[in-house]
Write a structure and sequence with these properties.
Layout (H helix, E strand, L loop, with lengths): L7 H7 L7 H13 L6 H9 L7 E2 L3 E3 L33 H11 L3 E5 L2 H13 L3 E5 L5 E3 L2 E2 H8 L2 E5 L7 H9 L4 E7 L25 E6 L24 H6 L4 E5 L10 E5 L1 H9 L1 H5 L4 H15 L7 H7 L2 H11 L3 E10 L8 E8 L4 H6 L7 E2 L1 E3 L2 E5 L8 H11 L1
Parallel strand pairs: 1-14, 2-12, 4-7, 4-8, 8-9, 9-10
Antiparallel strand pairs: 3-11, 5-6, 10-11, 12-13, 13-16, 15-16
The chain binds pyridoxal-5'-phosphate.
Pyridoxal-5'-phosphate binds next to helix 5 and strand 9.
């Protein structure tokens, strides 16, 4: 006996309290009927409800999880008009970059700064504006793929610059750059790219920033990770040990880089953005390039970044979720794990993530559940937001370092329901 599907209207009526907008619900019902799968509509609607962007609880122990939006940081918008490009004092056209640029330049101890959509666009824009039709000297150890097909040699080609490879995979010295420049290949820039997501170990050598600053061409350092200052003065205490080998914007500039580039949503702890900081004359030239308009950030990003810069300037690190996660003591995490009271409290290792600090681990603490409940946790249990955990050998691990303490109650209720 063949079963016939109920009418679309009947099904839409039946699922009307699903929370899905009517057109989306009807479309899904039609798809299900077309595929002979209407008996599974309940599960299909549950799946559709996982698709919208929503708050999730990051219990992975990866502080900057690219799939979870890297650094957690709120976007705020008044919902009203802003002075995005209006100079309030003169009434004439202003620059969206001026104020945020000054705040970031102050934090980096340099002349000038500007903001674009992400660090990838920062690199593309700099190359296009300052090195088009010229050679760019880059060490063979730094021809990196950042991810998502963003590969340094390809980006260079796209910008109209050409690559002048120097040194070898494992060893590159100052003399290699000097030779490339004197070989009359019209080298117009040296670019140093931080080995953010990989390490070359063993018989290695690299030229330092301060060795390359007097070779007569602009020196651009893509530090990627976005640590502002290696002393972390905003913390008013010692920075965590695991940060010790990370290049910082301020020091890279004071060692002689003319420009640095970094992401807003890695160690800076802010929204997705790309920062270019350094010499004012170079930044002025970059701002005039047509591509600058194509990669400019919107007001929501700029106000969000402005709020973050203020927290740094006011040394209010506890208001920056990334630094809060980074600085929480293992004892505190242990207390929270015990207070949740379900599963086994265990020591574990968190990681910085986000393509930063390869091999670095951060001592942490969390809960171990002796079965795999990762999928039901992700689907959301009761009123708990989706919880993203880690599974190893059929056991589920929830690292509390990356969980905001206000979410502990949801972790508790979800674990209670599933175990
Ligand atoms: C992460 C990173 C990038 C890319 O930054 P996005 O903001 O993700 O575009 C570029 N360069 C380096 C060295 C990085 O670490």
């Amino acid at each position: 006996m063949t079963s016939y599907p109920p009418s679309v209207n009947e099904l839409a009526e039946f699922f009307s309290d699903s929370g899905l907008p009517h057109p989306i619900l009807v479309k899904e019902i039609r798809n299900a009927i077309d595929e002979g799968d209407w008996e599974n509509l309940d599960a299909r609607i549950k799946y559709i409800k996982t698709l919208p962007l929503q708050t999730v609880i990051n219990a992975t122990g990866v502080l900057l999880h690219t799939n979870l939006g890297r650094a957690p940081w709120p976007y705020s918008s008044s919902g009203y008009a802003t002075n995005l490009e209006l100079d309030l004092s003169s009434g004439s056209r202003g620059s969206r970059q001026k104020h945020i640029g000054e705040l970031i330049a102050t934090l980096c101890g340099t002349e000038s700064a500007m903001v674009v959509n992400n660090c990838s666009s920062a690199v593309l824009l700099i190359l296009s504006a300052l090195a088009s039709k010229k050679g760019v000297a880059i060490s063979r150890s730094e021809m990196v793929e950042i991810g998502g097909n963003f590969r340094v040699p390809d980006v260079l080609e796209l910008s109209g610059a050409y690559l002048v490879e120097v040194g070898t995979t494992n060893r590159t010295r100052k003399g290699d750059y000097e030779r490339a420049i004197s070989a009359n290949r019209d080298v117009g820039m040296i670019m140093k790219i931080h080995q953010s997501n990989y390490k070359i170990l063993g018989f290695t050598e690299a030229a330092e920033i301060n060795e390359l600053s007097d070779l007569g061409v602009p020196l651009v350092a893509d530090i990627g990770s976005g640590l502002l200052d290696e002393g972390c003065p905003w913390l008013e205490k010692n920075p965590p040990k695991w940060l010790s080998n990370e290049p910082a914007a301020k020091q890279t500039l004071s060692q002689g880089a003319n420009l640095v580039t970094f992401s807003g949503d890695k160690l800076l702890g802010g929204p997705q953005a790309g920062i270019i900081a350094g010499d004012a004359d170079l930044i002025e030239k970059i701002m005039k390039h047509p591509l600058a308009r194509a990669v400019r950030p919107g007001g929501m990003i700029l106000s969000s970044l402005q709020e973050l810069a203020m927290k740094y300037l006011n040394r209010d690190w506890e208001a920056i979720p990334f630094w809060k996660m980074a600085m929480t003591s293992v004892e505190e995490l242990k207390d929270r794990a015990q207070a949740i009271g379900i599963g086994d409290p265990v020591a574990m290792n968190a990681v910085p993530g986000g393509g930063t600090l390869p091999q670095v681990v951060i001592p942490s603490f969390g809960l171990q559940i002796n079965k795999d409940i990762a999928q039901p946790l992700r689907l959301g249990v009761g009123d708990a937001p989706p919880i993203v955990s880690r599974v190893e050998d059929g056991r589920t691990f929830l690292d509390l370092r990356t969980v905001d303490p206000t979410f502990d109650k949801y972790v508790a209720s979800a674990l209670h329901a599933l175990t």
